[in-house]
Amino acid sequence: MKNIPRIFIGNDLHENMELPAGDDAAHYLRRVMRTDNFLAFGAGREFNAVLSADGRRFIIGAQTTHTDPSGHATLYFAPIKKTDDLINMATQMGTARFVPVITERTTAHHINWNRMKKIAIEAAEQSNRNSVPEIAQPVKFADLDLSRLAFADERAAYGRDLTANINANSILVGPEGGFSDAEFAALDAAHAQGMSLGRTILRAELAAAVAIMKINK
Fold first, then answer.
1. I need a surface site. Which of 42, 49, 106, 176 has the fewest CB within 10 A?
2. Which fold has domain 74-215?
3. Coil, strand, or helix at residue 135?
4. Is the pLDDT of residue 164 over 60?
5. What pLDDT, on the 0 to 100 scale, is given for residue 66?
6. What is the pLDDT of residues 189-204, one digit of tens each?
7. Is there a contact between 204 and 80 (Cβ–Cβ < 8 Å)?
8. CA pair distance 180, 104, nearest whole angstrom
9. What ranges do the domains of the chain cover?
């Protein structure tokens, strides 16, 4: 169904329900897209839907057969200056859940997480997903169970012999300055699986998207 707008309006959707239409969504449909028809999605499902004639209600129709292409991966990541780009790209790559992690070299401590949630919604709408990823509360690196994580190991760019792909559903990506020596020591001591992202050093936001792509294969 190309060119039909897709709008996330919540996870509690079912056929034949009606719910209030927000002013922004109604304006987007009528004034920008010039249509009353759209696809509503949430919680892995997608429905045909229409904006009522008075522009005040969404009317949910039949569920479509579109299967959610989202993955099941959780991305643990250090907040960065371009966290918005990281959320956008990793959502498009199918990330199911984001967990911000405060590392020794994390410098971005004042992220507008409500804005990040909006970016995740917009990326999900654009990328044909049927679900919007969760963004959890930030946690400290020291509080992680590292034995249950894989991590993007930039040491591969300096000759460390690492596998390119990891059989895992959770991946940790460091900040712009990378993990500290103490953090690498903690990861190694916990036998966390280091993943190679190649022989070049990637920007943190791109490293996150590449890591998700690799573990979603």
1. 176
2. Alpha/beta knot (3.40.1280)
3. strand
4. no
5. 96
6. 999 989 888 888 889 9
7. yes
8. 7
9. 6-63, 74-215
| Cβ 149 vs Cβ 192: under 8 Å | yes
* Dihedral angle sign, alpha carbons of residues 190, 171, 134, 178: positive
Taken as a whole, the chain contains a residue count of 217
**DSSP assignment of 53-118, as one string?**
TTSSEEEEEEE--PPP-----EEEE---TTHHHHHHHHHHTT--EEEEEE-TT-------HHHHHH
Q: How many CA atoms lie within 13 A of 89 on its CB side?
A: 16
Q: What is this structure's pTM?
A: 0.91
Q: Which CATH superfamily is domain 6-63 in?
A: Hypothetical PUA domain-like; domain 1 (2.40.240.20)
Q: Name the DSSP class of 14.
A: -
207-211: average pLDDT:
92
Token pair in block for residue 190? 């916990």
